[in-house]
Amino acid sequence: MAGKKRVGVLALQGDFEAHEKALRRAGADTVQVRTAEELNGLDGLVIPGGESTTMLKLLNYMDLKEPLRRFAQEKPVFGTCAGAILLASDVSHPPQESLGLMDLSVERNAYGRQIDSRVAEVDPEPDFAERTAPGKLEAVFIRAPIIRRAGSGAKVLARYAGDPVLVEQGRHLVATFHPELTADLRVHELFLQKL
């Protein structure tokens, strides 16, 4: 079908297949990305949840870190959970390297261990509802990070317990929860609007 956006999903580790399914349901074509060459011709990229330190090691091993940074200078990137950690400019608990694509300070595993994972309903900001559709968002938090600081260029689109959980900055978007694990496509649809 003509006009479909081509979205890469980083497929080194994590829940990349769930993102592929959500993106296809939202109307995009998807490509699993494991090499720098596979970034060519994409309209955007999703960095899924998983384990951020493992992903970082694999990005270094596969020589993908700099190609991802270059890609993000021109195209939108959407990071969920571990992907949000990798997009942040500052990571704590413990500190680790990141791609530094968004002016965010993120604390890893801030809600606690796996047993502290939860499903919550969050009220998105009016701007999110205007650009997608009204209604609460179901947010699946799995060993989720907390965004402790969002810089002046970052726009908070949803909060949970007072903390930002869905933030955009320019062309990029992060969620500390897993929108791909629900039937609600609005977060993925919002990302596709950026392409």
Strand segment count: 12
> How many DSSP H or I helices?
6
* Oligomeric form: single chain
Mean pLDDT: 94
Main sheet makeup: 7 strands, mixed
Radius of gyration: 15 Å
Low-confidence stretches: none
The largest beta-sheet arranges its strands as 2-1-3-4-12-11-10
Order of helices and strands: EHEEHHEHEEEHEEEEEH
Distance between the termini: 17 Å
Which word captures the global form? globular
- Give the DSSP E fraction (strand runs of 2 or more residues): 25-35%
- Level of helix content? 10-25%
Instruction: Assign the structural class, choosing from mainly alpha, mainly beta, alpha/beta, alpha+beta, or little secondary structure.
Output: alpha/beta
Keywords:
25% helix; seven-stranded mixed β-sheet; 195 residues; alpha/beta; single chain
Brief digest:
The chain is of the alpha/beta class and 195 residues long. The protein has helices at 16-25, 52-61, 65-72, 82-87, 126-131, 186-193, and strands at residues 6-10, 29-33, 44-47, 77-80, 88-92, 102-107, 118-122, 137-141, 146-150, 155-160, 163-169, 172-175.
Description:
By secondary structure, this protein is α/β, with parallel strands linked by helices. Helices cover 25% and strands 31% of the residues. It has helices at residues 16-25, 52-61, 65-72, 82-87, 126-131, 186-193, and strands at 6-10, 29-33, 44-47, 77-80, 88-92, 102-107, 118-122, 137-141, 146-150, 155-160, 163-169, 172-175. A 7-stranded mixed beta sheet has the order 2-1-3-4-12-11-10. The model has no long low-confidence stretch (mean pLDDT 94).
